Amino acid sequence: MAKMIFGKKVVVALTGVSYKQLDYWATTGVVRPSVRAAAGKGSRREYDFKDLVALKVAKRLRDEGISLQKIRKALAYLEKHYPKKETQLAEFRFLTDGTNIFVVDKDPQRILDTLRDGQLVISLALGKIIEGLQGELKKFAAPREEKITVVGQTFTVVLTPDLEDGGYTVQCQEEPAAISEGETEREALANIIDALELCLEHEREWQAAKAEKAQAL
Q: Is 56 a member of any domain?
C-alpha cells in the first residue's frame, strides 16, 4: 500500500477509537502518531497505516480488560523487534489470558504452549486486522458519485473523503469549476449546490455580455 497520511477524524472513523482515547494514548505513549505529533494547542496529529494497526490492536486488548501499561509494553515490543514492517506484522498474533500478553508467530506449537494450563486465551490475528483495515480504508476513501438538481438541470458530482483533514471535497463533472467541501456529506452537497448556482449565474452573465457585444457589432 502506498504511503498514506491520516488525520484525527479519519483515524477515529477507521479504528473505532474515541477522540478522548486517541488523545490520551498519544499523550501517554500507548500509540503515538508516527508522522506528526501535536505541538501545542491547535496543532494536529498525523498517523500512518501502521499506527492504525496499533490502534486497532490496542482497542481490542483494552476492550478485553488489559491494562494500558501492558498494552504499551506489547506494542513497544513489536515496534522494537519488527519496526515498519507491515508484511511481518501480518504473520503475528497477540495472545492474552486476561493477565498476560504473548506475541507469537505462525508456529502452532507456541500457541499450544499457552493453552497447557487450560486458561482462556484470546487470539488477535494481526494479518486479519491489517486486511480488515485495508478493506475499510478502500471503501472509506473511494470517491462516490451523486446526482443533484440545480435550476432545473441535473448534474453529477463526485464526493471524495479528505483523509488528512476529515470531511469531503466535492466537484461537479459537468462544471469542473464548481468545487467545494464540507465537514459532512450533506454539508458538502449543500455547498456544491451553492457553487454550481454561482457558476451558472456567471455563465448566464457571460453569455448575455457576449450576445450584447455581437449585436453591437
A: yes
Given a contact cutoff of 8 angstroms between Cβ atoms, the answer to whether 125 and 108 are in contact is no
Parent domain of 16: 8-138
Residue 100 has pLDDT above 90, yes or no: no
Sequence-distant (6+) residues with CB within 8 A of 103 are: 74, 77, 78, 92, 93, 94, 95
Instruction: Give the Cα separation of 193 and 17 in Å (integer).
Output: 34
**Mean pLDDT to the nearest integer, 112-141:** 69
**Residue 166 to residues 14, 32, 161, 169, 214: CA-CA distances in angstroms?**
12, 19, 7, 10, 48
For 181-206, what is each residue's pLDDT tens digit? 999 999 999 999 999 999 999 988 88
Q: Rounded to an integer, what distance in angstroms lies between the CA atom of residue 57 and that of residue 66?
A: 11
pLDDT level of residue 83 (50, 70, 90 thresholds): low
**Per the structure block, which three cell numbers stand in for 91?**
504473520
Residue 148 is assigned to a structural domain of this protein: yes
Last residue of a domain, one of 138, 154, 170: 138
